[in-house]
Design a protein that fits this description.
The complex is a heterodimer of chains A (about 450) and B (about 70).
Chain A (H helix, E strand, L loop, with lengths): L19 H16 L3 H8 L2 H9 L2 H14 L4 H26 L3 H9 L1 H32 L4 H16 L4 H12 L4 H8 L4 H10 L8 H13 L4 H14 L6 H27 L15 H10 L1 H33 L14 H17 L7 H27 L2 H4 L6 H29 L5
Helix pairs in contact in A: 1-2, 3-5, 3-9, 3-13, 3-14, 3-16, 4-12, 4-14, 4-16, 4-18, 5-13, 5-14, 5-18, 6-7, 6-16, 7-8, 7-16, 7-17, 7-18, 8-16, 8-17, 9-16, 10-14, 10-16, 12-18, 12-20, 13-16, 15-16, 16-17, 18-20
Chain B lengths: L16 E2 L2 E2 L4 H4 L10 H27 L2
Antiparallel strand pairs in B: 1-2
């Protein structure tokens, strides 16, 4: 680190050109510079985007999907499959973090500048659509959790929007991130619920070592759960979010080690909590609910009856947390994406006036989703499950640009992808394509009665 | 900011620091657009193929979802 040179005139002195955004970020970065050599404190300062992306993706629809999988198929193939999908997520998110740290620009901005507005808006359009559907799923999760405590949908809608407004009010990335991280810790309630249902550890060990028993039943339902499990761990919003948040936080190439640790810690913790939801859901095996059989108070009430009130309460609180954290991260990713594609400033380190499109989109998408859950008769659980499938279907297009950016040697220099990362990334894109297409085509053919 | 790779020189040394920020982290620097990247014809075809594939499958999923309501 070198201080601004005192012999320069004010016009030439770079320090005099600092904007308010730079001043706030410089404050955070000076703490990072002083923490060099103090391993754990440095990690504490630099962790955030990775953990938030991963725990944010342990959201309402994902937890509903994991729990439904456990309730229908019990402890078996899907338990290690969740871990496998988080390995995929770590590979993808590490690339996003690396591109954000090296270029200091978000995904939307880079696609806009390097590949033109058409591709940028197509990617942002996909994101806006899937995020709106997913956000409805997040409010559904909060509503399901609150229904267990006999609290109505209006409170769920209000709670989500107020939370977004509260976290946006600070004008600092650091404040927003730490509030979201604090809330995300409560994702561990799913693990607590899993422990309290007293699962058979032998079954869990057998599932992890053999990927069995394999799921039985309707081929289309298995495809739905495969696609929604993938969509529960790797999604377009995570890509936009982690790259933009890494740039907004001020990560640099010298922080890549901690950025990777942040991503891996997030992936491991989220995989454990996600497996917790599946194991808790497996207590409902034979309950006869089916994928769509847990409407209303849903899983918390069913678990409460089956495994005791404490489990039901923990699960309900977990659903509220899962929805709340994801509302923050998904709204933020939408704000970043739209304002970056508009070529406007996007940072939590700016005031509302300085980054009006960023903050407005952030609030608007949350408000729209909140209104939808208040509409009577809307098939909320079905929306929540299909949100993940839609994310899986649209994901390959977003990932293709991540791989292109991470391979762009003009941008990335020696931090560009190596061969091993490229092989893994291409395999992931191919797997996501196949799973999404298999479910989409099979469902469509069943629907038009070409298949029976 | 486009990085010109010089294998003889570590990239960290190329970064000019402004207090605790890298020069290309400054808001004013980030407002300068990067030069567009060249996408070859094959890459263009591959991207459009992927785009159309994603749209078709997406439409199938949305149709199925709506039909099942």
């Amino acid at each position: 680190m070198s201080a601004a040179r005192p012999d320069l005139t004010e016009q030439d002195n770079p320090a005099s050109q600092l904007t308010s955004e730079d001043v706030v970020r410089e404050h955070d970065r000076s703490r990072v510079q002083q923490a060099r050599g103090r391993r754990w404190y440095l990690l504490w300062l630099l962790a955030g985007p990775g953990i938030l992306a991963m725990l944010g993706e342990n959201d309402g629809p994902s937890m509903i999907s994991y729990t439904a999988t456990g309730a229908i198929y019990g402890i078996g193939f899907f338990l290690p499959f969740i871990v496998l999908t988080f390995v995929m997520a770590i590979v993808c998110q590490e690339m996003c973090m690396r591109v954000g740290a090296v270029t200091h620009r978000g995904y939307g901005q880079l696609v806009l500048e390097r590949y033109g507005p058409s591709w940028a808006w197509l990617a942002a359009g996909d994101l806006l659509f899937t995020n709106l559907v997913t956000l409805i799923g997040e409010f559904v999760a909060i509503r399901v959790g609150l229904t267990y405590f006999h609290i109505g949908a209006g409170v769920a809608a209000l709670l989500g929007v107020v939370l977004v407004l509260f976290t946006l009010s600070g004008g600092r990335y650091w404040r927003w991130e730490r509030i979201a991280l604090g809330l995300a810790l409560f994702n561990g309630l799913f693990l607590a619920a899993a422990i309290l249902v007293k699962p058979d550890l032998g079954h869990i060990g057998h599932a992890f070592t053999t990927f069995s028993p394999l799921p039985q039943g309707s081929f289309n339902e298995i495809l739905l759960l495969l696609a929604s499990t993938i969509g529960a761990t790797v999604t377009p919003w995570m890509v936009f979010f982690q790259q933009s948040a890494s740039a907004d936080k001020g990560l640099t190439p010298s922080d890549l080690r901690q950025g990777r640790q942040d991503t891996v810690i997030g992936g491991v913790v989220a995989a454990i909590f996600g497996c917790g939801a599946l194991v808790a859901g497996a207590a409902l095996l034979g309950h006869g609910g089916g994928v769509n059989g847990f409407a209303g108070a849903g899983f918390p009430a069913a678990l409460g009856q089956k495994a005791g009130g404490t489990v039901g309460t923990l699960f309900a609180l977990g659903m509220i947390e899962a929805g709340a954290v994801a509302i923050l991260t998904i709204s933020a990713s939408t704000g970043y994406a739209i304002s970056e594609c508009m070529g406007r400033s996007s940072s939590f380190n700016l005031t509302f006036r300085e980054a009006a499109p960023f903050y407005s989109v952030n609030i608007l998408v949350a408000a729209i989703a909140a209104v939808v859950i208040l509409i009577p008769g809307v098939p909320l659980l079905s929306i929540a499950l299909n949100a993940n499938v839609l994310a899986t279907v649209l994901l390959p297009f977003t990932l293709a640009f991540v791989v292109m950016l991470a391979n762009d040697r003009q941008l990335m220099g020696r931090w560009a992808n190596n061969l091993r990362t490229n092989v893994l990334a291409v395999a992931i894109v191919a797997l996501v394509c196949v799973c999404g297409a298999a479910y989409g085509i099979d469902s469509f053919l069943l629907q038009i009665h070409v298949l029976s | 900011m486009v990085r010109h790779v010089d294998p003889q020189q570590p990239d960290e040394c190329e970064e000019e620091m402004v207090l605790s920020l890298e020069r290309d982290q400054l808001a004013n620097d980030r407002r300068h657009p990067l030069p567009p990247a060249y996408i070859g014809p094959r890459a263009h075809v591959a991207l459009w193929t992927l785009r159309i594939f994603v749209l078709i499958v997406g439409a199938m999923v949305i149709y199925t979802f709506c039909a099942q309501l």
